[in-house]
Each structure stands twice: as structure tokens, then as C-alpha cells.
Amino acid sequence: MAHVLITGGAGFVGSHLAEALLAQGDFVTVIDDLSTGNIANLDGCREHPRFRYHIASIMDYPLMAELVDRADTVYHLAAAVGVRLIVEKPVHTIETNIRGTEIVLQLAARKGRKVLVTSTSEIYGKNTKVPFAEDDDLVLGSTSRPRWSYACSKAIDEFLALAYHREQGLPVVIARLFNTVGPRQTGQYGMVIPRFVQQALAGDPITVYGDGTQTRCFADVSDVVTALIGLMREPRAEGEVFNVGNDQEISIADLARLVRDTAGSHSEIALVPFEKAYNKDFEDLARRVPDLRKVRRFIGYKPQVDTEGIVRRVIEYFRARV
Ligand code: UDP
Questions:
Q1: Catalytic annotation, residues
Q2: Gap from CA of 276 to ligand 1 centroid (Å)
Q3: What backbone torsions phi and psi does residue 188 show, to the nearest 5 degrees?
Q4: What are the DSSP calls for 170-213, one per residue?
Q5: Which residue has the higher pLDDT, 275 or 177?
Q6: For the chain, which domains are there?
């Protein structure tokens, strides 16, 4: 039984992680400022005797010092996420992602606590390699395009985490999450599957940006949580970076059809030019596939839920809510 601190624990991934850790017998404390998290995400945890939560920012240094002190391990998930939010609130994204992680790592190093830092597949940027392996180059765009501030801020987080590991022996693991989906993810910040599902259920046009030939690989949140817990428990993973996701690839146009058909919807599929969807400075990525060999080698990870299963689960989730 361990005392676990989850930053960003009221978020979509964090709340699923909290539930999984409670189910395994851990004591779980969550800190979340509810900027993109939602207190309702913790409905399954709040009454649990081994659960505590703090609605506060990870920038609250004295509080964080106390929480890190009381924890055995820290899962650092708090971050400004979602492409839309990043484009709309670049100052908030950059500051939260850099300063917040700095605080977590500094405190963890001081107290000798193990940390898992969640990073992102965004970090590979415009690299056209398929699939992306952990030591591939980061190919980022110009600083005049806000999208890249997110990847850049997460790259700094990774550099800092690895530096703490090398210089001060901080036990740290980095997980680069690829597109993660599941119940409780909202479409509010632009994520495609919850958006398509809500559009399909409402009978509204399903908005495919660009020509829909761009592809993504979607992972179910339950698979991602399994990987995060597995990586945290594996001593050989310390000081290492891992891709975490699913390598089943689908084009966004096929995804739109899959969502529409699975939901039994008659929504039309509408192509929306990128300039209309975001703004003229936006750059979308053609393909993004994770190389999962490393995470498989270290913890035997294999995703269990396929794209069809993910879409079904998200449809069930939104149906139950209306
Ligand atoms: N997308 C889309 N329609 C939407 C929202 C997103 O076609 O309503 C596309 C988006 O342009 C991208 C893909 O779906 O090509 C995945 O977008 P998301 O924001 O979910 O993730 P990311 O771009 O970070 O991979």
C-alpha cells in the first residue's frame, strides 16, 4: 500500500488513474485546480476512505511541499492540455507546463520521491517518421505558431526530469501519451472523438477538419492507466522515456464514418477547412503512430481496447449522460 499523489487528478486521465490506484489498495491524494479538470470526474472516488483531494494549483508551493512530503510516489499529470486551449491561451499553457513541472520535480528531488511525468506525442512535432520511437528527433514549427509552445513546454519538462535524474538521482519516469480517449473526456478542448460522438448523437454534422486523410492512433484510457502504473512499478524504467498509446491507425474521415455508423446516426459528414477550424497559423499533423516496442519490452504492455471498442465506450458514456 502506497501513498500516491496525483497532480491533475480531477482530469480525464487523472481521475481514471485515481480509481485504478484506489482499487489496488493505495492511498490517493489529488491536487487539481479544475482549470480543465472537473470535480464530477471524482464522483467515483470522493467518498472513498483512502481518498483525499485539494482544489488548488500546483503553483501553490507550500501546499505542494506538504503533499509531496506525505506521498511515496507522485504521478504528475497536471498540465494545460488540448490543442484548442493551447492556441487560445498560450501564456497559461507555457507557464503551467513549465513552472508547474519545475515545482513538482524540485520538491520530489528534495524529498527523494519517485515521479512519473506525463508528456505528449506532440513532442515529435512535424517529424514524418512512422512510427515514432522514443529517441527520434523533435521537429517543431516556428515560435509564431502557438501550437508548438505546447510541445516545447513538454520538451523542457522532459529535459528537466532527465536532468534531475542524472544530476541528483531523482527516480523519474517519462510517459509520452498519444491520443488518449475514454469516458469523461470532454469535446470542449477540441478532442476529436468526444466531439464526433456528441455531434453524431445530436444529429449535427460531424466536422472533419481538412480532407480527413490525416490519421491518428487512439488509445483507451484504461490501457494508458495500466501502462502508467506498470511503468511506475518497474525499477528499470527510471530515467527512461516511453511512448504510451495504441498503434492501431485510422484516418479522421474513417473515424467519422465509424462514429456515425456505431451510433446509428444520420449525421452528415462535413469537411471543414483547417483555417476555419483553428486559425490561419495552425498546422495539423498528417500521421502520428507510436512505436510501442520499448514499453512492451519493459512492462509487457499491450493495448486491450481497439478503436471500435473505444468508440463504443465513448458513445455509451455520452448516451448515459443525456
Ligand atoms: N479533428 C477533426 N474534427 C474535430 C476535431 C478534431 O477533424 O472536430 C481532427 C484534428 O484536426 C486532428 C485530429 O482530428 O487531425 C485529432 O485532433 P485532436 O485535437 O483530438 O488531437 P491532436 O490534434 O492533438 O492529435
A1: 150
A2: 13
A3: -60, -30
A4: --EEEEEE-SEE-TT--STT--HHHHHHHHHHHTPPEEEETTS-
A5: 177
A6: 3-178+221-245+288-303 (3.40.50.720)
Distance 192 CA to ligand 1 centre (A): 5
The size of the chain, in residues, is: 322
Task: State whether the beta carbon of 180 lies less than 6 angstroms from ligand 1.
Answer: no
**Is any atom of ligand 1 closer than 6 Å to the C-beta of 176?**
no
CA distance 15 to 45: 8
pLDDT interval class at 147 (50, 70, 90): confident
- Backbone conformation region of residue 132, classed left if phi is above 0, alpha if psi is from -120 to 50, else beta: beta
* Contact (Cβ atoms closer than 8 angstroms) between residue 106 and residue 112: no
Distance 277 CA to ligand 1 centre (A): 10
Give the bridge partners for 76, in sequence order. Answer: 7, 117
DSSP, residue by residue, 4-60: EEEETTTSHHHHHHHHHHHHTT-EEEEEE--SS--GGGGTTTTT-TTEEEEE--TT-
pLDDT band for 83, please (50, 70, 90 cuts).
Answer: low
pTM over 0.85: yes
Cα-Cα-Cα-Cα dihedral sign, residues 318, 320, 321, 322: positive
pLDDT digits 0-9 by tens, 165-211: 999 999 999 999 999 999 999 888 779 999 999 999 999 999 999 99
Q: Which atom of ligand 1 is nearest to the CA of 256?
A: 7
